Amino acid sequence: MTYDVIIIGAGPSGLTAGIYARSKMMKTLILDAAEVGGQLTALYPEKGIHNYPGFERIQARKLSDKMYAQAESMECEIRSHEKVLEIKDGKEELIIITSKGEYHTKSVIIAVGMGMFKPKRMEAKGEEEFEDKGLTYILPVKEELVGKKVVMFGGGNSAIDMALVAATVTDTTIVHRRDEFRADESNVAALRESRVKKIMNAALVSVNGDSRVRSVTIDQNGKVFDLETDLAVINIGISSDLEDLKKWNIGLTESGLINVDFDMRTSRPGVFACGDVVDYPGKHKQIITGCGEACTAVVAAYKFVKKPYWA
Length: 311
Description:
The protein is an alpha/beta fold. It folds into two domains: 2-117 and 240-306, FAD/NAD(P)-binding domain, CATH 3.50.50; 119-234, FAD/NAD(P)-binding domain, CATH 3.50.50. 23% of the residues lie in helices and 27% in strands. It has helices at residues 12-23, 39-42, 60-73, 157-167, 185-193, 287-306; strands spanning 2-3, 5-8, 28-31, 48-49, 58-59, 77-79, 84-89, 94-98, 102-105, 108-110, 118-119, 135-136, 150-153, 172-175, 197-199, 202-209, 213-220, 223-228, 231-234, 238-239, 258-259, 271-273, 278-279. The protein has a five-stranded parallel sheet, covered by helices on one side. Strands 12-19-13-14-15 form a five-stranded parallel sheet, with helices on one face. The longest helix is centred in the last third of the chain and has 20 residues, at 287-306. The model has no long low-confidence stretch (mean pLDDT 94).
């Protein structure tokens, strides 16, 4: 069987691409090396998203679930835990080699986000020792936070969102290394109005405890002190692995992202891309941006495959 399009990546961009491809009746397969949902489920499942149209506020996990359900309802074929290894040229087709098999397709859309990613570490004393023993990089569900003191490290949108979620059920403190946050103004305003305690211009020195975390040591402008906590959450960004892109014969930028034109075409015929993995002047990494790019990529792939009279 030959697909009209194979989408690599099942995050918001990949799922949106699948929905639009099926609306054009393209035979569609979505592959992901990990779980469906991308960063929404892997890193920020409890994060509240307030800037996605149609939802005043929705949990990242729930938004992912809705996209997944819609893609399935459109009869997208979706396979998780299947890593794409190679994209080979065939006779008037592309051949996708994965960790589990081989697929033939007329076009490809790359929507791998930031690739196989992992949270950045602060490299503080005790950080590795207490991971999963009261130190985490992903905020647990709210029910698990009740009655626990939470200390959040970070200053971006995700860290603030997590702190706001935690503060609805427990005592929460956010620690940031600078004197101002680098998040959206609306998030910062919500933080100011919340009961989250803020410690600015401060760095994590060590994570302390016995069989699990009991406190963290913080250096604030040279003043060193301990802060009792039951849960330390570190959210200072992610480290990504996009090495696979180098094997796929597509043009990359100096930062290792995919070069695309205004139609989301890559330098390789029949291969398109969208989402966080692409780069161009003025690129702004947001869920809604990736979803818009996915629509554009699908239209371009449709023209490439079906060659309608108006293309």
